[in-house]
Amino acid sequence: MTHPLRKHIEEIISLTDEEFDFVLSHFEHIKKRKHQYLIQEGEIVNKEYWVIQGCLKSYFIDDNGKEHILQFGMENWWITDYESFVKQVKSKTSIDCIEDCELLYITFENREKLTAKMHKMERFWAKKSKIGRIALQNRILSLLKNSTKEQYEQLLEQYPKLFQRVPKKMIASYLGVSRETLSRLNP
């Protein structure tokens, strides 16, 4: 059976068995329980995570104590506080597990070593970065031009499985509305 990370990478680039073994040697495997943190706001982040199984949320708490979810992470998604990961500054977000999670992570140093030795992986991460920027741009555009109902429907269409795994309170936080507003959209 093909390793799930290999399947994920080979959606963009092809790898020989030896190349994949080399790539995998740069990763560590971890398991986290529901409600455990991967990252807490204020820490310096040295790991980028790839989700094998489970669901996570990336969020921050505003000055009034309100949670704002920036991103969910499910199977085959990458997640970290990217500013902290790349610049080695204090993270502005926290990431914790909505479900029990199984993850692979790569440290910043190992990612740098891997991309220096294997340009295929540099191309892989460049493509993933572009895909991520497109998704972020689309999310911002949706927030600016679509009604809450349209944003909700778009999210439901894009990620129907998310709605089976995440409480409506978290969907509301992601959309920037109250739980009551969300309930009116989807009674």
From TrEMBL:
Gene3D superfamilies: Jelly Rolls (2.60.120.10). It comes from the Bacteria. Signal peptide: none annotated. Residues 33-113 form the Cyclic nucleotide-binding domain. This is Crp/Fnr family transcriptional regulator.
